[in-house]
Amino acid sequence: SSLLIYFIRRARKYFFLSLLFSFFLNFLQLLNPRIIGYTVDAILSGKEDKLPVYLQQLIFKIGDLNYWQNHLWIIAVVILVVSFIFCFFKYLSFVFNTKAAEILVCTMRSDLYHHILSLPYSWYSLNHTGDIIQRTTTDVETIRDFMVNQLLYLAKIFIFIFIALFFMLQVSWQLTCIAFSFTPLIVYDGMKFS
Hints:
Blueprint: H1 2-7, H2 12-44, H3 53-59, H4 65-70, H5 72-117, H6 121-126, H7 129-136, H8 138-171, H9 173-180, H10 183-193
Helix pairs in contact: 2-5, 2-8, 5-8, 8-9
């Protein structure tokens, strides 16, 4: 754990930015279906009470229900803007993730190189050249893949679950409890087969 923290010290800013944009990505990914749902449930059906209070206060400052029913193009533009922001944040998350990965690999290889150079000659006679090359190439890449793909993917899953839980609780806490009651079983199966 302390060794992992040591190696990511130079890339921690980029890992943090990648996670931050992943949070916004997951939020935006779940926002568009909510916008469409509110449009169908409240505006097209004419039932204002289907909207949360904070949304009623926000959108009815612009116009009443008739206004929104006659100006659905505004909602379509909002959905398009959210989609473009989603794509931009996805790009930024990928850029910061890749930059963090390359800095991590550079730090590990550099430290490993300096460490190997400082070892006595007797160590070189005991270890085969192929083993040394394996440690400096394949093993570093394995750690990189774990940090960049697996660990960050796990963090993104937890962020997605948290945001999905937030949106689902706004719809129905009973259905949310039923849906999330299967989560421990899914986690167990995932750990068993991984």
